[in-house]
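Most newcomers find our protein records easier to grasp once they have seen one. A learned vocabulary of local backbone shapes supplies the integers on the structure line. An example says more than a description, so a record of this kind follows:
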Amino acid sequence: MDALAPAARLQALAGRDGNAGRIRQRNEARILRAAEAVFARAGFAGATMAEIATRAGVPKSNLHYYFRTKQALYRAVLANTLRLWLSQADIISARRSPEAALEQYIRAKMRLSARYPDASRVFANELLHGAPEIGDVLRDALRSLVGRKSVVIHGWIAAGRMAQIDPSHLFFTIWAATQTYADFEAQICAVLGVQRLERRDYERATEHLIALVLRGCGLTPPAPARAGRRGGGAAASGASASGAAGAGGAAVARQAGAQRRGAYRGNADPLP
């Protein structure tokens, strides 16, 4: 229920009544996705309603029926992006364990970066220009949401369930680490030597971020569901070598692995 108040505030920001029928909702969704792509590439100043209409596959007159001005459409894109992001924060709940809540929150944020990369880029560009359109929402709905979720995290800390960390900066870290795969995809692709990020790249990045954040919070990350393609061969070779070495070699390998993990956790402990 936490996301209801911010959602109402964001609908008011976008100038939408929230009672549109299915056809209207489908048309608006198609227009918003087209607008995300155009605003992400051209920025607000360079984008045109004609280009957005063409990309959405609707007559320009229909576009103006749903969104009278370019500014109204731009604000709707920002509002829709924030609505998606804020709704995921309901995962942070005192009813869950900190391990499960943070893991699921990071997975949700990474899914949004993979599914709506252009929306994330439009939002980032808005912030780089000082948030002239949504600054009031950031200071109101977003700040309030982080405050409520910080209470949950402080409760986990007080109960000894996770390390002493700053909840606000934990959110900043998660947002930056997950949204960078959308906002700076070109940089990541250049370093990885790929044309675009594929599903396996997001899967590997997600498991990495979960382990990194949970260890930093003094928590034990879950075992990855499956190894990435690039790491799979090494894992298989290691398994074969361990089997050939026999039970004694496996025991030594387990002990060495435990020592390495313990050392890593010790180095990753948050500062007091």
The CA atoms of residues 114 and 199 lie 8 Å apart. Residues 4-216 form a domain with the Tetracycline Repressor; domain 2 fold (CATH 1.10.357.10). DSSP finds twelve helices and no strands in the chain. The chain has one domain: 4-216.
